[in-house]
Every structure is written in C-alpha cells, then in structure tokens.
C-alpha cells in the first residue's frame, strides 16, 4: 500500500482521522523543536535568522509563509525536515574570502554573482563582516548553535516521556502469547503463558524488552532467558516454577527473533472469531468483551490454561462458560454467565499428500531429542502402529497421534522415524541445539537409520505460523519441512477432481474469496486474499506449504484455492511428448474448493482474544521524571546499539525503515493510545538527535567536526577538503535515502 492509499484508508476508517492528525502533529513537533533549538541559540548569540521553515521550499514552492520582524516563517512543499537560514551560514569561510578577494581584484559590482550558489559580492561581505553574521561569531558560539537542535530533541524526548508516564501507558507484559514452530523459543520448550522475567540477567517488564534485545544480539551469541511458569502440580494445584534457558536467535528473516508473540487474555475480541468457523455458528451468543472462565469442568484462569485445554480436547466438542464484563447490579450477585457448546475446528482439506524433507528443529527434552533425533536429519519415512488408521499425510499426523494417545490413556504409542543423516548439511534453524550433536544415538552419515520415538500427549501446540514455518508434530517434539511436491492424491478429493498427479510441484498458491467465486466471464477480475510462491530449493524458501495450509483454515467457507503446478516432462497426462528429451516441464493452473473433513481437526478453536496489557503509570511527579529519564536514555543507547550492530553486520540493512514506513508505524502506534504514541515520539526524537549528530558532512555532526578542526588549527579546512567531504557526505545521505525508500516501496526485497 502506498502512502496516499494508506492515508485515504485511515481517513475513511471512522475516527481514524484523529490518529492521522496525531501523526502529523507529532512528527511535525519533532522537526519543529530541532529547528527551534538552532533558532533560539542563534538569536541568543546575536545571529540574524532570515528564514525558519518546516519542510523545504524547493524551487520556491511552499504551503504557507509569513514574515515577523526580520525572519520569514513558512512551511515548505517537501515535508522531509526543516531548516533555519542564518546570515553568513557558510561552513567554509576561507572559500568565501577567496571569492571576495577575486571579485575585488576584478572590480565587480556589489550585485555581481561570485559563486555557483548565487552568492553576490554584497552578500559575501555581509556574511564575513556583518557583526550579526554566523561567521562573525566565535567557534564556541557556532558550536552552541549547531548542537542546539540535537539538545532540543533530547529535551523534547525527555518531556514527552515524562508526560506519557504521568498520564499512564498501556503496555504489553513480557509474557509469551504464541510460539512459532521450530524457532528458538519452541526449541527451548517455552510455552504460551510463560513470563520472561530477565534477559541476560537484566530484569524485564515490557514485551518491547524482547523486541529491543533479541534483534541486537551478536551473530552466533546466546541469549540467556529467565522464565517463570505457572503450572499445575500432580494434585492439580497452581504452582510457580522458574528456570533458565539459553537460545541463539534465529536469523531466518531480516530481524533476528526467537519466535514469540505478546500475550492474550481470555476476553473475546471484536470480532470474536474467524468467519466460517464452528465458533461463528454461535452467532450473537459470542459477544466481544465476554471472558471464558470455564472449559467443560475446568476453571480457566488465564490464556495459558485455555491454550492447554484446547490441546487436551483436540478434536472434541466442549462446553465453554462465558462471563459478562458488566458488573452485577446488586451487591452479592454474580456476574452474568452463559454456557455454550463449541464444536472442534474441522480441517479444510484439498486432498493432497505432500512430500516431507528435513527435520529442521527438535524440541529440548522431547521424545525425539531423547531418542537422538537431530536437526538436519532427512526424514525418509514415518511408520505408526498397524492398528492406527493413517494414510501417510504428515499434516494429519499430529491429530491422529493426539486422538490415539487420548483414547489409550497413557499407553505407549511408538512412532518409527526412518532418517538419513548427512555430515555436511546444516539444520535450517537450531543454531543452539549443540547438545543434540553429542547424542549417543548417532546414525552413520548418508545411511538410512530407523529410530523409535514414543509419542507423548501434547499439552501445547504452536500457533504463530510465519511465512517460512515448518510443520510441528508436538507429540514427538519435531518440526519438519513440508515440500511443495505432491506425493499422493486422495481419491474423490478436490485434488483428484482437478487432475493433480503425484510428482506435480506446487509453484504458487492463492486463496479466492467466496464473493469472487464467479463463473461469469463479464464479472470483475478475481482478487486474491492470500498469495504465496514456493521455492523447492532449500534455504531459499519464500513461503512454506505448512504456513499456507495453516492460514487456509482461517478463511470463510466457500473459499477456493488456485494452484500453479509444474508437471515434469514424461508425465503420462502431460501434453508434451514424453519421448522428446527437449520437452520442457508443463505449468498448469487449477482451481479447487477445499472440502470440510469430519475426521480431522485443528487444535485451535479459531476464537480471537484481546491482548494482555498492564497500565504503567508513575506514582507521582518525581517518579515520572525518573521514568522519563530512564526511557530517554534507553532510546538514545538503543540507536547507538543499532548503528553498532549495523556496522558489524549483526543487523541487516534491509531492516531499516524509511519515511513511508515511519508514518505507517506512527499511525499504528497512535491507534494504541496516547501514552504509547508519546513514547514512540520519545524514541523518534532521540533517533533524530543521534543520527543528526553523526560525523557526516551536511549533518549537524559533520558541521561540528569542521568547527572542531577550526578550533584546533585556528583556521577552517581548505576548500578542497571541505568540498570533497561535503560531496562524500551528500552521497552517503542520498544513498541511504534511496535505499530506505526502495525498501518502503517494495523495490528492494527485505
């Protein structure tokens, strides 16, 4: 979405125009206070300020202007900053003196132009000899003027942080809501509801502590997490445990992560469920704000317990008790409650059985880890006991195992994994699974090896599927890659009716919404809601079938799927000549509608819940000052850490955000409340202060370097040095701007 469309959508979204106004005013204030710093100190030093502009009036184009006293104030047409124009603002006075001497020798008139910038003889004389000129001031005064913008940004950051904590900020606690299969937190055994109370020994309180620490970890370095878990004892009593885990963040995306999301409550969101789900069939009986307090006969205290019950009742209908958020009208009465029957989430199946590849991750202390399975092992075959009905589809295996384990009530269910181990191949994730490599269960490299893994009843499952996620089998504790290559087709399935054949490779897939499922040739073009491309080359996956299949379950009933298939030459139904060695693979496009399975279910009930937050507010004025100072310091040091990691290669430059992304982020944060938006302005103002004071010519930091040189040498740098460094600085800034604009506009892949 481009910036114009983004703003238009924002204005049309009810009261969202207020958030747009907050963004415009907030970003404008940051620029204003920066230029105000230059302006006020320049005035205090007796410098004549000719212009004060927000934005740049390129080619004389401006939105508004007025004159007050000797200064022209205005808003430029290009909203990418601002400037203060001071009399004699020239960083290289030596060059100006040389030009003026040449003009005098040539006998030029006062209005004669003597430089490429259009400076006249009279202007040069004023710049050098007028007592109110910037160049007429001492080096310390000019340093004060140059540094005033940065100082004002730091003061502004501190003030808005104090205001934010004075009025209160709704923050996300440092509690895990969802876990991504195969990633660091999943491998370490972290579960929904776990609270991370320390990172590398430093106490944590907000979820942003994870977001600001994990991405800045040195490449290959471990992160030490102290985790607090509230569980149930053998006597079914709540008990708290604290343990430590060490994780190497995954670098499978632009930003290093451990694969967790923020936590949720048990209060229903608005809307309360996905369309077309069994929960949606309950209609108005599911009300936003109502809280699930019981599943069957089990009290639900938090989202972690609710998630556990979804896992234990996987594939079963349950009774959920909802409690109204309204207070009882009379003292002693209980809040209004209602009990509803909630059916399990049937899988929407295409009838495809796909091939599987490597085991990309193994969960710590899982049955697979104890059996010696290692990340990177090639999964050749999977065998279940003969009395278990299963057709070999790895996507269906988690439900089959969970159902069998529940029916057999703890009896052993052995699963035989045939693996091939390669000494050269590295695992896709699992940078920190070094302990598994020292396992006594070692298969000879390159040979098939059978390992029996006793399945366990799953009390948790991964919900956070990202574009590159593998498929989780929680009963074994492994995450496996699902290859987009058809292994088999179920008879009488949508795939069979579409004539999909074993060996076909799925190149791309997209969903077609029910409203777009039309056969009329005159109908408008079909719009896709989810479109992904697959790459069977390992290590270069743009998306995984596991994620597409997982997300497909959330779409409304009647959603169709369009697949682009590549069929190898020589296929019996290929239109090419099988005997022709030059025959190229054929590319086919088919459309099919998933059918609802009544014998295969997802653990997730497709309900939507409100995020867990806590109100962070200072207890008084002095505490607000203390918290504001701490937040400002954290913001300043965060920028330095990011720059440090960028130069070391620990953070990818593709993670940078330009002006368009900045505006979109500001809008999203503004919609989360005034307090959070003020803290965002604190971070942004500190960012501007740090970046603007970098020693790059054309920035304030570059000007300061030239002034330091002049203070030490007693004269400014030569024209050749000044011009060369200025052009270099300008090239750096333009290069960075082109890069971030390319990222924002999607011209450069992240």
From TrEMBL:
Keywords: Hydrolase, Membrane, Metalloprotease, Protease, Transmembrane, Transmembrane helix, Zinc. One of its GO terms (cellular component) is membrane. SUPFAM superfamilies: PDZ domain-like (SSF50156). GO terms for molecular function: metalloendopeptidase activity. Residues 427-451, 568-587 are annotated as: Disordered. It is a multi-pass membrane protein. One of its GO terms (biological process) is proteolysis. Residues 176-231, 337-383 form the PDZ domain. PANTHER family: MEMBRANE METALLOPROTEASE ARASP2, CHLOROPLASTIC-RELATED, REGULATOR OF SIGMA-E PROTEASE RSEP. Pfam families: PDZ_6, Peptidase_M50. SMART domains: PDZ (SM00228). Coiled coil: none annotated. Belongs to the peptidase M50B family. Residues 431-440, 569-578 have a biased composition (Basic and acidic residues). It is found in: Membrane. Its cofactor is Zn(2+). It comes from the Bacteria. This is Membrane-associated zinc metalloprotease. The chain crosses the membrane at residues 6-33, 143-167, 677-699, 720-741. The keyword Transmembrane helix applies.
């Amino acid at each position: 979405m481009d910036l114009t469309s983004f703003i238009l959508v924002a204005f049309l979204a009810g009261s969202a125009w207020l958030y747009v106004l907050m963004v415009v005013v907030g970003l404008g204030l940051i620029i204003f206070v920066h230029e105000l710093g230059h302006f006020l100190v320049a005035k205090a030093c007796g410098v004549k300020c000719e212009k004060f502009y927000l934005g740049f009036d390129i080619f004389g184009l401006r939105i508004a202007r007025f004159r007050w006293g000797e200064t022209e104030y205005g808003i430029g047409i290009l909203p990418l900053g601002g400037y203060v124009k001071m009399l004699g603002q020239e960083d290289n006075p030596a060059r100006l003196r040389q030009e003026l001497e040449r003009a005098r020798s040539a006998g030029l008139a006062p209005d004669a132009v003597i430089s490429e910038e259009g400076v006249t003889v009279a202007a040069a004389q004023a710049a050098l000899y007028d007592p109110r000129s910037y160049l007429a001031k001492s080096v310390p005064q000019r340093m004060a003027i140059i540094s005033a913008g940065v100082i004002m940004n730091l003061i502004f950051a501190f003030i808005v942080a104090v205001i934010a904590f004075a009025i209160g900020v709704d923050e996300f606690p440092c509690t895990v809501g969802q876990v991504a299969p195969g990633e660091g937190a999943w491998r370490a055994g972290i579960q929904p509801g776990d609270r991370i109370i320390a990172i590398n020994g430093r106490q944590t309180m907000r979820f942003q502590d994870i977001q600001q620490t994990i991405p800045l970890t040195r490449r290959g370095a471990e992160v030490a997490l102290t985790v607090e878990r509230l569980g149930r004892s053998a006597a079914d009593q709540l008990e708290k445990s604290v343990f430590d885990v060490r994780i190497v963040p995954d670098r499978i995306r632009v930003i290093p992560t451990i694969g967790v999301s923020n936590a949720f409550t048990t209060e229903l969101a608005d809307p309360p469920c996905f369309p077309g789900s069994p929960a949606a069939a309950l209609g108005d009986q599911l009300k936003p704000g109502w809280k699930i307090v019981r599943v069957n006969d089990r009290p639900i205290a938090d989202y972690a317990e609710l998630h556990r019950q979804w896992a234990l009742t996987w594939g079963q209908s349950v009774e959920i008790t909802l409690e109204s958020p309204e207070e009882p009208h009379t003292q002693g009465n209980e809040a209004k409650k209602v009990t509803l029957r909630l059916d399990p989430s049937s899988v929407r199946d295409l009838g495809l059985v796909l091939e599987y590849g490597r085991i990309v991750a193994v969960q710590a202390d899982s049955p697979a880890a104890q059996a010696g399975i290692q990340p990177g092992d090639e999964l050749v075959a999977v065998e279940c006991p003969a009395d278990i009905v299963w057709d070999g589809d790895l996507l269906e295996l988690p439900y089959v195992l969970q159902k069998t384990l529940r029916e057999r009530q703890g009896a052993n269910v052995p699963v035989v994994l045939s693996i091939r181990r390669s000494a050269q191949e590295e695992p896709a994730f699992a940078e920190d699974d070094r302990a598994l490599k020292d396992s006594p269960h070692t298969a000879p490299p390159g040979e098939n090896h059978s390992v029996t893994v006793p399945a366990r009843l799953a009390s948790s499952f991964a919900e956070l599927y990202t574009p590159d996620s593998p498929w989780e089998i929680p009963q074994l504790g492994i995450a496996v890659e699902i290859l987009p290559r058809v292994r088999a087709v179920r008879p009488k399935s949508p795939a069979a009716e579409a004539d999909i054949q074993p060996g076909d490779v799925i190149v791309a897939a997209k969903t077609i919404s029910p409203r777009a499922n039309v056969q009329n040739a005159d109908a408008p073009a079909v719009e896709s809601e989810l479109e992904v491309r697959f790459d069977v080359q390992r290590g270069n996956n743009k998306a995984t079938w596991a994620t597409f299949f997982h997300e497909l379950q959330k779409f409304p009933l009647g959603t169709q799927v369009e697949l682009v298939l590549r069929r190898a030459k020589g296929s019996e139904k290929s239109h090419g000549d099988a005997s022709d060695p030059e025959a190229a693979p054929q590319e086919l496009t088919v459309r099919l509608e998933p059918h609802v399975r009544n014998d295969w279910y997802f653990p997730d009930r497709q309900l939507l819940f409100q995020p867990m937050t806590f109100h962070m507010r200072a207890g008084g004025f002095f505490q607000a000052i203390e918290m504001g100072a701490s937040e400002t310091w954290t913001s300043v040091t965060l920028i330095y850490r990011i720059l440090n990691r960028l130069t070391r290669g620990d953070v990818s430059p593709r993670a940078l955000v330009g002006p368009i992304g900045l505006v979109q982020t500001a809008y999203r944060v503004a919609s989360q409340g005034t307090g959070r938006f003020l803290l965002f302005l604190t971070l942004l103002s500190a960012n501007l202060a740090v970046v603007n004071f970098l020693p790059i010519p054309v920035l304030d930091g570059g000007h300061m370097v030239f002034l330091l040189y002049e203070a030490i040498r007693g004269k400014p740098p030569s024209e050749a040095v000044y011009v060369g460094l200025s052009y270099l600085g300008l090239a750096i800034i333009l290069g960075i701007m082109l890069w971030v604009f390319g990222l924002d506009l999607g011209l450069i892949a992240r």
